[in-house]
Amino acid sequence: MQVDALPYRTFKKLKEKFPIKTLVLDDAALSIQGTHLLFKDHREWITHLFKKEGVEVTRFGHDYTSLDTSHPQLGLVFLANDSVIVPAMEVHALIGHNAKYILKAVEAKDGI
Predict the structure, then answer these.
(1) Residues 19 and 42 sit within 8 Å (Cβ to Cβ)
(2) Does residue 28 lie in a domain region?
């Protein structure tokens, strides 16, 4: 089985052009009792977490047909917790590409 590294290669190029906002989700956040269970799906939860940080996600998923072009449409980049060194999942947004700053961070939903 061959791993498709095109999204990550595209991310490496784009992160040189755009500022990055990163969420780090640890095991507690991803656990069976994590706050993610209060949301409809992972997209709603991740979007909420970015809004709390003052960032609006404008594109969640990749347009794979565009990734090897001069104008790639990359979505959020998830790097899995596959390491003992960093036992967390990272979610990267590229400001100006797949996310933008909002004027005021959104208040937490029900104290979350």
Answers:
(1) no
(2) yes
